[in-house]
Amino acid sequence: MIRAVLASSLVLLVVACGDSGNQDGGGADGVGASGQGGSVDVPNPLTNPEDGPPAGNPDGHCDVPAEAGLADSSAPRTVVGSGTPSSCTAQAFLDAVAAGGVITFDCGPDPVTITLDRPAKIFNDTGPEIVIDGGGLVTLSGGGKTRILYMNTCDEAQHWTTAECNNQDHPRLTVQNITFVDGNSKNETENDGGGAIWARGGRLKIVNTRFFNNVCADTGPDVGGAGVRVFDQYEDLPVYVVNTTFGGAEGFGNTCSNGGGISSIGVSWSIYNSLFSHNRAIGNGGNPAEGGTPGGGSGGAIYNDGNEMTLSLCGVAIRDNEVVQHGSAIFFVTNNHTGDIRVDSSVITNNTGGSWYPLYPQISCHDDTQIVVTDSVIE
Q1: pLDDT above 90: percentage of residues in the chain
Q2: For labelling, which of 83, 136, 269, 364 has a CA lying 20 to 30 Å from the CA of 284?
Q3: 110-165 pLDDT, tens per residue?
Q4: What are φ and ψ of residue 229, in 5° steps?
Q5: How far apart, in Å, are the Cα atoms of 297 and each of 133, 149, 363?
């Protein structure tokens, strides 16, 4: 067991990760470190739900930067529903996402599930702010057949809005107070991964959200993100994930070739007070794939690949995730050997399977990748 504690002494444990073997990753444009700012409270309406584990890590108490908090949804462009569950149809939600802006729901006082037969697709000229706020009562389901939400600034069909689609400041998408279940992107071939959410460009923020039983491709060296798959954030700013649960209990976990919870290429993440558990990376052969294998099987909870990226965890619990190959909790490979991992006030424990853990069990990365650990337990 390795423990690193930050108390009154304000001492950091800074180490390099371990020998990288041949895991070079897929490659992408670089990203920078996580942003900073003042802290805010994030009210959580999904604290004691009856339909699955709660949103967030109950033991996570880190301050959240202001820009990572809840988006303002008080003046919606579209309200899905007219007060009854039957009025909250899949088509009404698909139309609302296509129209963009702030989206809320009026489906009655009880929890409701909206099951889609195709992904809801964001158009890049319908923001710049796009907010999907479930009010703590809405579950979006892919029915085990389809991805749930798609945003891509470089997809001409979703309307190009700038000459530099991979580095534009919009749309700025926030999903909050909502649950994503049974998303399935196995039938996606071009933009693969992202069983529940696939996002490229602009900005993405996830607050008070739950991801249960989402899946993406079973094998492949770099496909990943049963819950969320992300590329190309504006000015290399981080994806914020706050008070969010991926899995959370047996029977609720997410599964993909890599990255049972999240996956990205060339993207930084700042994750606060969140829980990753019972997710699985089930591919085999790693990346690049070993001879005679289909590849994959790394990053039980988190799979990060690319250049100059930072993974920052504060108040996060990563436990009971599984892999076949590497990084039972975290797989983090920067192709140009830049970037770092920061673990503060977090617990990483009881993640199983795989190999390539020379220093920190459950975390796989290059031997020159810095890991900065404060007030955390990794065992």
Answers
A1: 80
A2: 269
A3: 999 999 999 999 999 999 999 999 999 999 999 999 999 999 999 999 999 999 99
A4: -125, 130
A5: 33, 24, 14
